[in-house]
Amino acid sequence: MRRDIFQAIADPTRRAILVLIAAQAMTPNAIAEHFDISRQSISKHLRILSECDLLAPKQEGREIYYALKIDKMKEIDTWLDQFRKRMEVSFKQLDEVLYTLKSKKK
């Protein structure tokens, strides 16, 4: 099943995993220590994040370390940017209204 990155970040546990591994690559066991869910559930979340190309697994000996693929996160930022620009326009208009009101009070 092909998933997109927005399906991956829709789950709060997966978002928390992304925050954890943003600082450093971690093994599934190290990630599981931060959650009150089974190791199998963590593996399922890691599989979904990997399918969405948000994680880069790297084999080191017997361990697999998962690292964040920051370039893929840019897709999220690009999508959010359209809303950020609209908000900036709205805030600028609000600033102008407030400035006008403040000027009339004087």
From TrEMBL:
InterPro entries: ArsR-like_HTH, HTH_ArsR_DNA-bd_dom, WH-like_DNA-bd_sf, WH_DNA-bd_sf. Residues 1-88 form the HTH arsR-type domain. It comes from the Bacteria. This is Metalloregulator ArsR/SmtB family transcription factor. It comes from Chitinophaga nivalis.
